[in-house]
Amino acid sequence: MTLLRLTEVSKRYEAPDGAEAVPILRNITVEIGSGDSVAIIGPSGSGKSTLLNIIGTLDRPTGGQVLLDGQDLNRLDDLQLAALRNRQIGFIFQAHHLLPQCTVLENVLVPTLANKDATLRNSAVERAKRLLDKVGLGARLTHPPGRLSGGERQRVAVVRAFINQPKLLLADEPTGALDRASAQNLADLLVALNKEEGVMLIVVTHALELARRMGRVFELRDGRLVDSR
Amino acid sequence: MTFWTLIFRSLRFHARAHLGALLGAAVGSAVLIGALVVGDSVRGSLRDMALARLGAVQLALAANDRFFRAALADELAHKGLVEGMVVPLIALPATASAPDDSARANRVQLLGVDDRFWRVSEQPASFNSPAVDEVILNQPLAAQLGAKTGDRVVLRVARPGRLSREAPISPQEDSSVSLRLKVSAVASDAEFGRFSLQSSQLAPFNAFVSLTAIQDALKLPGRANLLLASTDEDPWAAVQANVALRQTWKLADAELELRDLPLVNALELRTSRVFLDPPVADAALKAATNATGILTYFVNELRIGDRAAPYSMVTAMGAPVVPPEMRDDEILINQWLADDLNAKPGDKLVLSYYVIGLSRRLEERTHEFTVRAVVPLSGAAADRSLMPEFPGLEKAESTRDWDPSLPVKLERIRTKDEDYWKKYRGTPKAFLTLAAGQSLWASRFGNLTSVRYGFRPHLFSGALRSVPLLKLSPDGTRAPTAAPLPEATTAAPMAGFLKQAGTELEKKLVSALNPASIGLSFEPVRQQALAAAEQSQDFGGLFLGFSFFLITAALLLMALLFQLGIEQRATEVGTLLALGFTPRQVRRLWLFEGGALALVGGVIGAAGGVGYARALLLGLSTLWRAAVQTSALRYHAEAQTLAIGAVAAVLVAWLTIWLALRKQAQQPARELLAEGAGAEFPVSRFPFPKKRSRSGLVDVRCGIVFHRRRLAVGCRAQRVRHASDRAVTLRRGHKVHPLGHGRSQHSATTQTEPGDGRIARVRQLSYCEHRRLSARRGQRFGTTPLGHRRLRAHRRNNPAGGARLEQQGRTRVFRPGRQGPDPCGVRSVPRARRRRCQLPEFESRAKAEVARSEPGIARRAQSVHVRESSEGLAQRKSVAASR
């Protein structure tokens, strides 16, 4: 079942002084089903992150349509997009972006604060503990992120992305700042979560090793998405 | 996990960063609360002073120069008309000195008191009321005189005249009384030493003497001029006391006397003050239909031609002496004067007399009358009681004993005058109409010397009957009896009648006359003093005004530092936004975070405000003593004031934070996250001239700018992370503009994203690299200080190029393109072509130039050159070609 459909999505950046706009993405059309895992590779500056941002509603395309679960993202206003991000999309950044002032558990629970549903918020605590336990951080719930290793931080970020049971998980170079072993662990975790939770996973990466473990691999070349497998 | 947890965690984690903001909030709150507490303290101190000078006294009746019966106090108290204690006093201005005149105090308040006085003080006195030869001094007076218990002091007090000192005929002799007394005690402020009815922040000089002693010394037995009452604190106490006073007072309390004049079958209301006060005269005339006014005056001379009689009394009156038809320019003279002046009806008689002129000086005036008739010196015309109690005259046995206080030349008095005085005393020698007399002699002291009530003898011939004439006429007018009184009547019934009529008339007069109209009235002095303390200059408002800029500055600093702290947390904001928080939720988080800071700052400030107020009070009592005229300022703070101040401070701080945060969290999450990722290059939002600062310091820039088509006033402070970042205003994601379009600076150059001109990388270039890249972009090379620094560095590293510069004598300011060959071999860009800066043909030419002149630099420049995709470059070339 198609969860995400991009139709003729393009993105241009206006140039200064009225010069012609610079195209980044050109007419990208792709369909990704729920539970799929996708890697997007390409050279720096090829627009991978831009594409990920457009899918993650952090940016809007210049042209084309993005349908998430049949919902046209272009038609949603900023507040609706924020709610959508909160409930349906999970983000994993290259830099973990954990809040340094909060403990591991609290960091995981931060996305639930934007949610007005109190029962969901309450049930999230148990879920957070279970997930943290699953990623091997069950004993470190009260630790601040500062005391974790890079790999552990990234695992906390993964759990945080999962906490609201999103349909879509977006990872922007998740292993970019990790050593080989940690990167391997994280890749295992992502793949496992994708399989067990049935969440769609889109990974932007330079690491071919990680890319190879995804179900589909696309290369972004000259603003076009090319299926490289 | 709740919002509050997050806020609490943020506060704790960023506590250090928030310290500045907290300090700002605390200072703002302290200054605000301090100012309000100063206001409280000034008000409280004034209130304390008011209470110290009044003790338990609620009401006071100060008659000043009028002396009422001291017994009035007992009558008011015993009858229960005034609740609490009523105390009679004599209060007079005096001077005090040491016996050897080594120390002196003017403006001393001499208080004649008895035991009762000390009972209305707040605290019981530790001493007894002064005995007859004793005096109690208050501390300031004792200090001024250097006197202690057992010493002797001399008090001089002016003997109060029965007539105002301003009246022309009050005695002029030295009327002061000197008292040499032993100091029996020194009264502290708490022991009523500060007693005064005058509201003053300066402690008065008080000397307390025995009431009876001062009454005797002043020859005013049983008299007092001040009543104090310690009633309950009732706003109507003064009204009730005045009602009681009206029921209790007697004519004697107004220094009035109603006496029988059996010889002329009349009652007479007169006063020891010579002139009846206008309200008294008015009430007396309205009290009965048969009332007639009399004005007797002391004249200097009565002259017809060259004959003159000195110093005589002249009376202006109506019946029975002066006939109603007599004109105002006519005068009746008695037989003695007619004989003396050899006068006859129709003669012109000139009257000389003193009046009070301008500046209270005595002026002698004259007035001419026509002699209408000569009256015999008998009957009503021989009534010596027509002369009022002129001080200095009324008891003189002989004219030589006169002390009329006027400049009298006693040598002018002839033997016959002396004989007249001995035989007839002050019997008037001439009579005017009342209107004529009043037009000459009326003054602000009054225009009557007595009011008489005459009776017709047939009303009481034989048995005593009722007194029908003693009814108030309905319209208040009076109908003087026209018929002359008979010479003599049966004396006994007349006397009885007058006695009864007098009693009834006194009742009428007392009820008709309001004692308040002659200054006998209780004032709620305590209420007034407290109200005055409350309504005093609002020092709270004053200091709040003075502190306004301080408060504003503290709050601005707080908001600025808080905002700075928030801006350091761009990544956190980006994360929250990416996780689905709305900008509003993020701002709300901060607002509560800031609110918590404001709250804590407000509470700290409340404590600080108390200290600040104490410091100000210390200053006001010492350094700025002149401003408040007292050193007795004590700290007072009402809980209400502290609470209001703290709440106001917190609210204002919160509002300031809200204003500062309004525009926050507006940037998209991806920019904020990118900013966090590439935060090596902090950026100034305002294109201000840069001030270099060292690494780690806060770089603060303020100014007024025209920003995004709006005039903006603002400051921006940011921490500079690396020394090398100092003036760099470029950062990743920013678009590159040529110089002249606002943004681009020169200390670093950039690698841009392909095609979109946004900065992908920033790196420092050498001087020549920079020059060439500027040239390639068609930019004018700036002459910023950094440019010069780079030039110096270039010289160091390239001795040849540097030498060339030296040779050409360009050691000061190097301006590429203007001053000869360029050390970097870059041709200056013609002004006209700068706009074409981004055309590929120009770029390629610039590249070629660089490659030709310095291949090494060209290679390095290549590495930072815009790496465009072949497609992008081809497209741009085609665009250029089409132009």
Topology, number of strands of chain B: 24
Strand content of chain B: 15-25%
Strand line-up of the largest beta sheet of chain B:
3-4-8-5-7-6
CA-CA gap between termini of chain A:
20 Å
CATH class of chain A: Alpha Beta
By DSSP, the count of extended strands of chain A is: 10
Whole-number average pLDDT of chain B?
71
SSE class of chain A: alpha/beta
Low-confidence stretches of chain B: 458-489, 678-731, 735-749, 780-787, 800-821, 829-839, 860-869
Topology (SSEs and partners):
The complex is a heterodimer of chains A (229) and B (883).
Chain A: E1 2-13, E2 22-33, E3 37-41, H1 48-55, E4 63-68, E5 71-72, H2 78-88, E6 89-92, H3 104-113, H4 118-134, H5 150-162, E7 168-172, H6 180-197, E8 200-204, H7 208-212, E9 216-221, E10 224-227
Parallel strand pairs in A: 3-8, 3-9, 6-7, 7-8
Antiparallel strand pairs in A: 1-2, 1-4, 4-5, 9-10
Helix pairs in contact in A: 3-4, 3-5, 5-6
Chain B: H1 3-13, H2 15-54, E1 59-62, E2 68-69, H3 71-78, E3 85-97, E4 104-113, H4 115-119, E5 134-138, H5 139-145, E6 152-158, E7 176-187, E8 205-210, H6 211-217, E9 223-224, E10 226-230, H7 237-248, E11 256-261, E12 266-271, H8 278-287, E13 291-304, E14 307-316, E15 330-334, H9 335-341, E16 348-356, E17 362-375, H10 415-424, E18 430-432, H11 434-441, E19 450-454, H12 491-512, E20 522-523, H13 525-534, H14 539-546, H15 548-567, H16 570-578, H17 583-621, H18 625-628, H19 639-661, H20 669-677, E21 698-707, E22 710-719, E23 749-752, E24 759-763, H21 767-777, H22 785-797, H23 799-807, H24 840-853, H25 855-864, H26 870-882
Parallel strand pairs in B: 4-8, 5-7, 14-18, 15-17
Antiparallel strand pairs in B: 1-10, 1-20, 2-9, 3-4, 3-6, 3-10, 5-8, 6-7, 11-12, 12-19, 13-14, 13-16, 13-19, 15-18, 16-17, 21-22, 23-24
